[in-house]
Amino acid sequence: MNRLIPLSFSLLLFVAQAMSQPNTQWDGDCAISHDSCGAWSAPQVVKVTLQAPDCIADVEYRTRICSTAAGVVEDVVVIGWTAPGGCGGFDVKSYFHQKLDGLKEYVILGLLSQWTMAANTPECPEVVKRANVYTAACGTWVCCEYTVDPTTAVCETGWVGPPPHYGSAPAKVKSCKWQACGTACCRRIYSICLRTVEGYIIREIQLLSKERLGPCSGQSQYAKPCEDGC
């Protein structure tokens, strides 16, 4: 008899913290209209087993059907979730426009894995395509360039030599800082199929592509293109 093996995920574990409170809504602002997509479904709630027996999340999501360059896919957007204290130990990191929430990624992959089991997932190499729609941060480097002229420096009596830092000749100085540029809506398309290995059925999920579905919300404030965390 075939036995179903849940998909396992490999994630870095850094910060141990209890997740006993409902998370703020994820990606609700990403439920945008799109010319190649149908309407979003009504909200649905499903229990997703992330790590038995203690880490089982209640996940609220919506779905829609879209035509993309990769073919017809079903989008899913997670709009809320609640997880018990047993779901601790996941990292949360932010570096400029790149943001990682380990538990969120785990929930998304768990939802894609569990949800597709009830949707006639084909045997590999035939695949069904699902897409996660999500919100990513945007940002850009903004620079200020100017000339420092040491000959205009006012030094007190007794100062010996040129003013510090810039020598004795005029010099150009350029300083840059990272500025937030709002958010962008993104889509990750996955292929999902079932593979039988030594009598066990394994769900195989592969990331096919990532794309930004629209501009960064703060793009109009900057002359250069904003970078996104898609």
Salient structural properties:
7% helix; 230 residues; mainly beta; single chain; eight-stranded mixed β-sheet; 1 helix
Largest sheet: 8 strands, mixed
Number of helices: 1
Helix content percent band: under 10%
Q: Report mean pLDDT, rounded to a whole number.
A: 79
Oligomer state equals single chain
Q: In percent terms, what proportion of residues is strand? A: over 45%
* Low-confidence region ranges: 1-25
**Structural class by SSE content:** mainly beta
Principal-axes shape call = elongated
Describe this structure in words.
- The chain has 230 residues and is mostly beta strands.
- The protein has two domains: 3-139 and 180-228, no CATH class; 144-173, no CATH class.
- Helix content is 7%, strand content 47%.
- It is built from one helix and ten strands, in the order ββββββαββββ.
- The strands form two sheets. Strands 1, 2, 3, 4, 7, 8, 9 and 10 form an eight-stranded mixed beta sheet that branches. A two-stranded antiparallel ribbon has the order 5-6.
- A hairpin with a 3-residue loop joins β2 and β3.
- The two termini are 42 Å apart.
- Mean pLDDT is 79; it is low at 1-25.
